[in-house]
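[worker-b] picked up task from shared queue
[worker-b] task type: protein-ligand structure
[worker-b] ligand name resolved to zinc ion; SMILES cross-checked against name lookup, match
[worker-b] sequence length check passed
[worker-b] input payload:
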Amino acid sequence: MSDRVCVTNDLDRVPLGERPWPCRRRGVHYAACEDQAECGGCVPRSASVGFLCDVCWAKLTDALDRVGMLTLHLRSIDSNGQALGEKVSRSIDQSMIVPDSWIAADELMDALGAPTIPSTASIDETFLLVDDAIAPWNKNTEEMVNTREGAKRAVVLIRRMQRALRRWPDSEAEWRAIPYVLCPTCLHRNLYRKAPLEYLDEILVVCGTNGCDYQREWFEWSALHAPIFQSIEDDMKRREREERRKARAA
Ligand SMILES: [Zn+2]
Ligand SMILES: [Zn+2]
Ligand SMILES: [Zn+2]
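[worker-b] inference finished, payload out:
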C-alpha cells in the first residue's frame, strides 16, 4: 500500500458544498488531538486504489453502475416531476429555462469530465452522450483515479449523485434488483441494492418484501456470497446495460 491518503482529505480547490467529509480512520488519533472523545478519528485513511481509500473506491464503482440510469432519469423529468415526451419542442425563450433535474444531469456529466447535454437533445441522443461519458471510466477506472484530478472528480461525482438521488427519490437508480439470491428471512427473491444517499452512508442490501425487514451492509453481504458473487455481479451489470438499451429504444 502506498503512503498516499484518500483524496477526500485534500480537496482544497473543490468548492465547499461539493466536498465530502474527509475519510478518517475511526478511533485513530494524532498525538496532538485535543479531544479524542469528541473526535471520531483524525488520521486520514490511506488510499488503496489510486488516490481513493477502499470505501471511496467501492462507492465509485457502485456510482458508475448507476450514473447512466440516473442521468437519463433526470433528463426525462421536468420541473414538476412530469415525464416529458421525446418530441417536446421548446421555443428559444423557453429553452433558456431548463428543469432543475436537467441541471443536475449536467452536473453529473461535468463530474465525469464530459460536455453537458444540449437542451434540445432527445432521449436517444442523451443515451449516447451519457454512454460516451461513462465509457472512459468503465474502461480503466483505476487509471482514472490514479491522478489527483481524476480522484477528485470521482468523489464529486459520488456527492452529486447522492444529492440527485435524494432530491428525485422516484429515480429507479436508487434501487437495483439483485437477481437469483433469496432473502434469508422471507425466502423471496426480492433483494435490492440500495444506494447511499449521504456520503458516509453505506451501500445496503434491502429486502423489498412487505413486512420483511432484512437488511445488510453490501460489502458484508457480498463477501458472504463471494463464491457465486462474480456471476451475480456480471449478470447485474448485464441487466443494467440491457435496461439502458431499453430506455434508449423507448
Ligand atoms: Zn482525533
Ligand atoms: Zn475515502
Ligand atoms: Zn425478505
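[worker-b] attaching auto-annotations
[worker-b] Residues 226-249 form the longest helix (24 residues).
[worker-b] releasing lock
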